[in-house]
Design brief:
Layout lengths: L7 H32 L3 H4 L13 H7 L6 H32 L5 H12 L3 H15 L6 H4 L8 H12 L3 H9 L4 H12 L1 H17 L2 H6 L8 H6 L10 H21 L1 H9 L6
Membrane topology: Multi-pass membrane protein
Subcellular location: Cell membrane
Keywords: Cell membrane, Membrane, Transmembrane, Transmembrane helix, Transport
C-alpha cells in the first residue's frame, strides 16, 4: 500500500474528523441523554444504576410529574411562555430603536454614552440586583412579572444594542438619504427602511432573549413567590424537598418536557440565527 493514495488521505482525514466530532457531540449531549434515560426509569434505579439503560420505558414519571406539584405543569409552561414572549417583544422593539439612535443620529455625547453602555455589558448582574430589588419593591412590583418584563421595554440589554448597531452600520447610508429626500424623518426612516432590513439581527435577538428568559432561574426566584405565577424553572424546584423525600423521577421527566419549547424555537430559527451573527456584531 503506498501513499499513493492522494484520494485516500483526504477520505481518511475526513472520517477521522467525523469520528472526533461525533465523540465530542456525544460527550456534550451526555447530560441530556442521561436525563432522558433517567426520566424513563423507576425512582429507585435512577441513582442506583445511573449509567444503565432503562430496562423498559416507564412513563409513570411523566404522568406523576405533570400534576405532582399540586397544579398542572402546563401552568408553568404557559407562564414561562408569557414572560419569554413579552421579553422578546420588548427587547426587539427597544433595542432596535436604541441601536438606530446610536448608529445613525448625531447628538451630544453620543460616543461617550455608547461607551458607557458597552461598559454595562461587563457589569455583573449581582452588582445591580439589590438596587433593582429595592426599586421594584418601592414600585409595588414584587410577586408580579413586571420586574422581569418592563426592563426589556427600556433597552437594558446592551449586548443586543451593540449587535444591532454593528448591523445598522453595514446598511448603506444612501438609503437614509433617499428616505429623507422622500420626506421621511428619523422615525419614519427607522420604521420603513432600517427596521425591515434588521431582520437577521432581530431574529438573533429574539432567539437569545427567548432562551435566556425561558431558562432563567435566579431572576424569577428573586421576584416571584406565588406558586400560581411560577415559571418552569421555579416549578421544577418544587420537586426538590430539602427536608424530606425529593421526587427526582418526575422532576427529570418535566425537565425533559421543558426542553422541548427551547429546542423547537432554536431549530425553527437556526438558519436565521447564523445569518444574523455572521452579518452583524462579529464584523468591524
Amino acid at each position: 500500500m503506498t501513499d499513493a493514495s492522494p484520494l485516500y488521505r483526504p477520505t481518511a482525514w475526513r472520517w477521522m474528523r467525523y469520528v472526533v466530532l461525533t465523540a465530542a457531540a456525544l460527550l456534550l449531549l451526555y447530560p441530556v441523554l442521561w436525563m432522558v434515560m433517567a426520566s424513563l426509569k423507576p425512582e429507585d434505579e435512577i441513582f442506583s444504576q445511573p449509567a444503565a439503560l432503562p430496562g423498559s420505558l416507564d412513563w409513570a414519571n411523566y404522568v406523576e410529574g405533570w400534576t405532582g406539584t399540586g397544579r398542572s405543569f402546563g401552568v408553568y409552561l404557559l407562564n414561562s411562555a408569557l414572560v419569554s414572549t413579552l421579553s422578546v417583544v420588548g427587547n426587539v422593539l427597544a433595542c432596535s430603536m436604541a441601536a438606530y439612535v446610536f448608529a445613525r443620529l448625531d447628538f451630544p455625547f453620543r460616543r461617550t454614552l455608547f461607551a458607557v453602555m458597552l461598559v454595562t455589558i461587563m457589569l455583573p448582574f449581582q452588582v445591580t440586583l439589590i438596587p433593582q430589588y429595592t426599586l421594584f419593591r418601592e414600585l409595588g412590583w414584587l410577586d408580579t412579572y413586571l420586574p422581569l418584563v418592563v426592563p426589556k421595554f427600556l433597552a437594558v440589554d446592551a449586548f443586543f444594542i451593540f449587535l444591532m448597531v454593528q448591523f445598522i452600520r453595514g446598511i448603506p447610508r444612501e438609503l437614509d438619504e433617499a428616505a429623507r429626500i422622500d420626506g421621511c424623518g428619523p422615525i419614519r426612516t427607522f420604521r420603513r427602511v432600517i427596521f425591515p432590513l434588521l431582520t437577521p439581527a432581530l431574529v438573533t435577538t429574539a432567539i437569545f432573549t427567548f432562551i435566556w428568559t425561558f431558562d432563567d432561574f435566579f431572576g424569577q426566584l428573586v421576584y416571584i413567590s406565588s406558586p400560581s405565577l411560577f415559571t418552569v424553572p421555579l416549578g421544577l424546584r418544587v420537586f426538590i424537598d430539602t427536608t424530606g423525600q425529593s421526587a427526582y423521577g418526575p422532576m427529570l421527566a418535566m425537565a425533559v418536557l421543558a426542553l422541548i419549547p427551547v429546542v423547537v424555537f432554536f431549530l425553527f430559527f437556526q438558519k436565521r440565527l447564523v445569518s444574523g451573527l455572521a452579518t452583524s456584531g462579529l464584523k468591524g
